[in-house]
Task: structure prediction
Amino acid sequence: MNTSKTFAGIPQEFGNLSTSKIVVIPVPYDGTSTWQKGADKGPQAFLDAAENMELYDIETDSEVYKEGVYLADAIIENSSAEAMVDVVHNVTKKYINRNKFVTVFGGEHSISIGTIRAFNECFNNLSVLHIDAHADLRKEYEGSAYNHACAVYEANNTTNLLQVGIRSMDISEKRNMNPDKVFFAHEMSVNEDWMDDVIDQLTENVFITFDLDALDPSIMPSTGTPEPGGLFYYETLEFLKSVFDQRNVVGFDMVELCPNENEKSSDFLAAKLFYKMLSYKFSSKEDTYDNGDDNVDDNPFNKLSKFKNDDNDF
Ligand SMILES: [Mn+2]
Result:
């Protein structure tokens, strides 16, 4: 968040905006969480943990930071949830329009209203892959449509929304929910084909919004509302790898890390998972990337963006 710092302590030559293919935007916002406060501390805990990661990924045999990772200034607007969402929307869109692979780290889940809005404006036929313990489909909550409990209400109406890992919701959310596109945790536990069943329903362009409380509290206790019966690490990685392999993931956000001084493994898990997603995105596709020129895009995985011409495509 300090601009003199780089993401994960990478050398400055890999942290410049002009040559970076990846942008990380921290959004330390926690205005509406209902139970445990602290998601505003999430980005700093995530960044601190990231500085202690080893940057070679064994599985993909890659060092994704060499694609360039620009750590943007944190978005600190907190006069209202709506104002925060506006800034997140505008800043996210600004970096998408510079052909960056844009990622956002929250903060509570209401930030995703802004990120999803930006991606949906920039990419055709967007699917939103919502990985979460909670349905987050309320039209409004406690008087606001910008509450964390409303995180994907708009996406449900404007994108192809797939919900995975859900195990807590209000009965009123049922009427907003598309039962064919919701994968409840109790059903996933007895359906060995759930990963393929989800991916089959995703369109080519996919934005992932990852609420860390989707993970089982035994591996991710540091979140605002830990719900039993969540995803474990290797099944999560297997699923994400399949999504990145089979679809054009155009960006992602990760939310709801609520750090605890005495429990650092959650912070580290978030950092590793985040880095793993970048590794999946960029591994095995490196030959198709240019040398980082902002204005040239020969990445076939972004060719469906509304803002790109087909001129220099193959
Ligand atoms: Mn949640």
